[in-house]
Design a protein that fits this description.
By secondary structure, the protein is of the alpha+beta class. The chain has ten helices and ten strands.
Length: 375
């Protein structure tokens, strides 16, 4: 690693990913610098300045490639702004400073943000984070921003009421009740089923969304199908096949939890979209196995693997069998505005997770041999 800083390492990865996505790296690198702030100058050879939960090795940045039907793949960045020095309260302040800078720079809409941000404000934040940021980058277009709030920022017990109040202010309380009726196993809200993220698009066009995320600990495929039933038009067989290929079976999934997200929009009395996020790194022995599964899924949905292969090479030069966790998640997005598949890549700035012993392979490629599907 030599004398590289955290920013140096991440800038190199991001610049190469921009080449993969056929876009100018100038604005994305500038945004990366803003996100990291003064902590970007920290030596990569030193331990992480903050145990960020964005990634397993505590790098506060994660990359992803989103495949969308009918358009080129887009590049995404998930990041946590860190204070100086990092801490629960200083990080919250840093998150709002980053937002304030981008609101002025890009003219982002704060109409919905202003209605709910006080609910997530506290002097003593609970949990692993307070606010994260998602940046969506597409060639020739301004970046799109989303703010991720922690529903449990005031404690696990307060999360359901906090979210209920936020969605009431946004006119989405009926959708929330529908989501809970389907997505939460009886008696498990705040236990095995946790409210994980409350996400807001920072724009006002007709596709602006609120997304609410539920983590399902020790779930089975049938639990996922029940959760997704809150959304009209979800193909249960398609969702089950995706889950079984990505996670190597039908559960129970006892590693990192599966996560479902619901897209909520004004004027609808139930969620209009559903996404399933599989933490694939918990259900493979190494990244070569994860790569095999993701490639099968991309083929299943008619996407070219070339961008995925190039993105992996842009982030790492190590053999994929030498570690696990580079390919962190894979998700299936169903419903508007952009159905598709997203693959999440860890920076591994600080650490490569050691591979696990290979198990007997599960019969997981049945779905990959069928005709490419449509969303």
């Amino acid at each position: 690693m030599g004398g590289l800083s955290v920013f140096d390492h991440l800038q190199g990865q991001l610049t190469r990913l921009c080449e993969v996505a056929d876009m100018d790296p100038g604005a994305p690198v500038h945004l990366l610098r803003d996100l990291l702030g003064a902590n970007g100058a920290a030596a990569l050879s030193d331990p992480p300045v903050w145990r960020s939960d964005v990634s397993d090795d505590h790098t506060p940045i994660e990359f992803s490639i989103a495949y969308n039907e009918g358009e080129p793949p887009s590049l995404r960045i998930l990041g946590e702004a860190l204070g100086s020095p990092p801490g629960a309260q200083t990080n919250l302040s840093a998150a709002y400073r980053f937002l304030g800078t981008q609101i002025q720079r890009f003219g982002l809409s704060t109409s919905r943000l202003d209605r709910v941000k006080d609910l997530f404000a506290t002097e003593h934040p609970h949990g692993e984070f307070a606010v994260w940021h998602s940046l969506v980058l597409r060639g020739g277009r301004p970046p799109e921003f989303k703010a991720y709030f922690n529903p449990e920022v005031k404690g696990v017990a307060q999360a359901p009421d906090l979210v209920a109040e936020a969605l009431t202010r946004l006119g989405l309380s009926t959708s929330y009740r529908t989501m809970l009726d389907h997505g939460v196993r009886p008696g498990e809200l705040g236990r095995s089923d946790r409210l994980t993220f409350f996400a807001l698009d920072l724009h006002d066009d007709p596709q602006a969304r609120v997304k609410l995320y539920l983590s399902h600990h020790n779930a089975e495929v049938r639990d996922v199908l029940q959760a997704a039933d809150a959304v009209d038009g979800v193909d249960a067989r398609q969702l089950a096949e995706f889950c079984e290929v990505a996670a190597g079976g039908s559960g129970p999934f006892e590693g990192r939890p599966l996560v479902g997200s619901y897209t909520l929009t004004s004027g609808a009395d139930k969620p209009v979209g559903y996404s399933l996020y599989v933490p694939i790194r918990s259900y493979v022995s190494d990244d070569a196995e994860a790569h095999e599964r993701v490639t099968a899924l991309l083929a299943r949905y008619g996407f070219d693997r070339t961008t995925f292969d190039r993105a992996v090479s842009a982030v790492t030069g190590r053999p994929l069998r030498a570690g696990v966790g580079l390919i962190a998640h894979v998700s299936l997005r169903l419903g508007p505005p952009r159905p598709g598949v997203t693959v999440y890549l860890s920076s591994e700035a600080y650490r490569v997770g050691p591979p696990r012993p290979r198990q007997n392979p599960a019969p997981r490629h049945r779905a990959a041999r069928t005709t490419a599907g449509h969303f």
